[in-house]
Amino acid sequence: MVLKKKIDLCISFLICFGQMFYAQNVIYKSSFPVEVSAESIFKGSLLNCENKIIYSTNNFSMYAVDKENLTVAWTGDISWRSDNSPSLYKNTFLQSSYDGYFTRVLQYDLASGNVLKTLDLHTLHSIPYFIGSMMYVTALADGGKLLAYDLEKNKIIWSKNIGDGVDFQPIYLKDKIIAKTHDDYWIDVDYNGKFLSQKSNDYTYIDDEKVSARKGEFFTHDQKEVRKEFLKKNKLANKDFKIKLTNNNTFLLSERFLTVIGGNLKIKLQLDLETIVPAEEYENDALSTILSIQDDKIWFLHQNHLIHYDFRKESLLRNVYLNNWRPHHIVLDQRTIWLISKNDGQLYKLDFEPNEKLDREINKQKAIQERLRCDLPNPEKAKAMKAAAEKFRQNQK
């Protein structure tokens, strides 16, 4: 009975300790007129700037929140809603807006929210890449295009018709762009818009021009094509996954696995995410995204769990459960979490670390844990201590 009570106390302590360690403090909650309904699809996105968070809401508006004083710096009506974040360019940003007739990309001043110019583009469909005033991006402009746009001259310099490849993120290298077209073909284009030949027998047609191409589902950081056979072999076939490239690795985040691919398609890691998140916590429409990768560590969101993982040591560093907010979009900003909640559509700022009081309690409980270590008492040691205490009392008489 003593053993069972001791074990139960230890288990209860560890559960409580874990819950305390991952508690989060709400520092800010917005009160924007945002509607959330089970009958409609919710959309919204965040842009993290130097001193502001730009929230493009489900109610076709934008709000700029000052990070320090947590006040609304400015608001704007864009008559447009999207899950794609605005694109930051110097002290401006690019965001689509609907004027009642057409959707256009507008350039806004970050400080005031004022419109600076209207671009000759309908919508941006990938994360832009900037060289000076030149923007390289996939966009809708009389069809799906890969294009170069001069923001100072406000005009398209060159464009290539890539069809449904417009929805895939190109790979921007030092001397070329790798972009997806149709039927899983990928082409190489230099920054002047010239098609480049490839070591491949495959080809496709772009704007009636025969173009050398390679075929694959996507390309890795070292320009290796990933085909369906590779995905099937590694339990990734017919799965949706997020892709992020670094200089040395390719990261895939799917419903079940975090996969790290090294050079020459070598699998470095395939982490079964059910070892971190129990299957009973799965939510069908939960946001899944890779947030950042630094050195050997990755931050990603999976099933409302914000996870920090060392993929070289294969070690879980932190697991923050955000189920109270069910993030629709999330941004990490040093020790702060900014997110849009699916529950109410509001913007939240959460303290990334426990508060001071909680931190003291954690350290106290950790010290107790180190001292107790949930070990059973030593009967001989207890007997000796009892005898010593009795002897001390006798000597005091």
Largest sheet: 5 strands, antiparallel
* Helix share bin: 10-25%
Number of strands: 34
> Which strand-content bin applies to the residues?
35-45%
List the helices and strands and how they pair.
Elements: H1 2-21, E1 25-29, E2 45-48, E3 52-56, E4 61-66, E5 72-77, E6 87-89, E7 92-98, E8 103-109, E9 115-118, E10 123-124, E11 129-131, E12 134-140, E13 144-150, E14 155-161, E15 171-172, E16 177-180, E17 185-189, E18 195-196, E19 203-206, E20 209-212, E21 214-215, E22 218-219, E23 225-226, H2 228-233, E24 241-245, E25 250-254, E26 257-261, E27 267-272, E28 289-294, E29 297-302, E30 305-310, E31 315-321, E32 327-333, E33 336-341, E34 347-351, H3 356-372, H4 379-396
Antiparallel strand pairs: 1-34, 2-3, 3-4, 4-5, 6-7, 7-8, 8-9, 10-12, 11-12, 12-13, 13-14, 15-16, 16-17, 17-18, 17-21, 19-20, 22-23, 24-25, 25-26, 26-27, 28-29, 29-30, 30-31, 32-33, 33-34
